[in-house]
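RETRY 2/3 - previous attempt timed out on the joint model. Re-submitting the same 734-residue input unchanged.
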Amino acid sequence: MMSTTDTETYTVDAIMDTIESNNYHIYFEDSLTALRTFVANGNYSRFFVLTDENTAQYCLPLLREKLGDPENFDLIEIPAGEESKDIDFCIGVWKMLIDFGADRQSLLINLGGGVISDLGGFAASTFKRGIDFVHVPTTLLSQVDASVGGKTGIDIDSIKNIIGTFTQPKAVFIEQQFLKTLPARQILSGNAEMLKHGLICDEEYWNLLKTSDLENPTAALVYKSVQIKNKIVLEDPHEKNIRKALNFGHTIGHAVETWSLINDKDSLSHGEAIAIGMICEAYLAHKKTGLSAAELEEITRTLTNLYPRYELKMEHSATLLEYMLKDKKNQNGKINCTLLSTIGQFNIDNVCTNDELLEGLNYYASL
Amino acid sequence: MMSTTDTETYTVDAIMDTIESNNYHIYFEDSLTALRTFVANGNYSRFFVLTDENTAQYCLPLLREKLGDPENFDLIEIPAGEESKDIDFCIGVWKMLIDFGADRQSLLINLGGGVISDLGGFAASTFKRGIDFVHVPTTLLSQVDASVGGKTGIDIDSIKNIIGTFTQPKAVFIEQQFLKTLPARQILSGNAEMLKHGLICDEEYWNLLKTSDLENPTAALVYKSVQIKNKIVLEDPHEKNIRKALNFGHTIGHAVETWSLINDKDSLSHGEAIAIGMICEAYLAHKKTGLSAAELEEITRTLTNLYPRYELKMEHSATLLEYMLKDKKNQNGKINCTLLSTIGQFNIDNVCTNDELLEGLNYYASL
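RETRY 2/3 succeeded.
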């Protein structure tokens, strides 16, 4: 069991300095100019930009303009959506790199959301035993979550991130302008991870988020979430202990997300699924690790106000438990959850029984 | 340009102590007992043995007997042969690990030749972002080459090791008994890498090998080759400089191997292809880096005496050059070779023109 004892407060109107991460930098201010400098000075032989059809349309023009359309740029485009994180698309990216003649001095620029950074990071970290890559996250979710921390991953049979590596990007460039291209539902998806950062580590930030206009998150809020996540992953890059804090809401949330991906025509977004997961796991935290009834109520109310209700049918819970059993966080076949002891304090490595997990699901279903 | 200035000599009748590599050990004496201890003390939740149909038949019984058939052992079997290194088989291994319920505390034991250790190492290093693996190499080639050095790799479209990682095994267990199960042609395949070790680093060892009964290599000879390879990879694990020494014969050899894999019914073994590559590249070394005519003649004679002649048709050379162009060792689209300055001294990063490479191929073809 572990929790942060850190009482440091983050100011939300701080100058957004470049953040130092694990041997790389995360750029905020005028970040695409920083990318241009990186590309010019990097001694790379070739540049590849991985996009999906959306980022190719909405984000690539700005990137091209800022970079001055350099030579040796080739595009690799995959369809938008979580389905593209499948190994088959990864093989497609590898084959395009082969066909383009990419060598070990090539740089892959991942322009997109979490699917692009996770898949692109994995493809690059394994191509010819590893080429350099950078992230230009274009969704709120990828800015505050996927692009920071050095996890890469792809899916097999809809099992999320079952294959991946721990490999750090060479840099991350966070450009606020891209958020303006996003539909509200995608912003809301990113909000879930920001709210999680408050819940696990920083009550003050949680309180601030509750009263903020989350549909239009300020650059300072994004910056603060990146600070929180970066602090955690720097302390524990390979998820041996405190990085597990970030899994709050994800044991149940990932299972719900997988279910929805397979069964729903209009699948849940990652954030929508994680919001459900956080409600269920807040219930478990109340039962197991001391989260008060008032706090459970506060978390439940905040999240159900923000996110649309999802019909969780209890007759599907056996399948959900099956997905949870395949979760990477498990040990010795036991399902492991990160819970809260209070808002702002996490508690890792809680083995949950099937009955407890069913109770958690049932809590959400009966709201 | 670089070459070893090391004048240390290796004794071939040394006691075969455990060799220390990059945070792991390579066991020789009574190595399967060492494996049993490793398995017993390793705090693993589950054990998986990756075999091919040959090692399942000839090597697995001894492994089982020595390990006392512990609980929690599951087998994953793939067909024998280089074709099994394809990404499709890797996906098969991942899916079996998923189906068996492998968690992050699982250990994968790679029982087989280079295909098993390369593929198994890659599958393990990426499954759930990395589980532990050990190698029990059962061919001479994998004992002196693939199992040492932390390279993992799989093929796509017959392009060898185009995808992979640098990940160290947790231990390597070299068991001489397994060599007795091998056909002569497989022993000869391993001999090529041993001869290469002499050519690049140790003239004395090369002279010793020339007069040894290579069909029945002694444990001391195997040990010495592992020592040489381990010394190089420890100095340069990620192949930034001197590890490239090990690529001697491989730029042309890999291309010939790929050609044969695609076109011949009875494909060349790795060693047979590398022997051809070493002859062609010795010719380039004579032309470019000072290898004497007498040394070229000596290398050519030794290798052509040991290995069957292969009909290298010059009308296929354009295709061979295409394969060489896709080689991982290239930079900026230029084909890069490791050559020799004399027997026992290597010379890395030699850019070779198409004409030079064609001359090298032609040298072999006109023998």
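DSSP finds 14 helices and eleven strands in chain A. Closing ticket.
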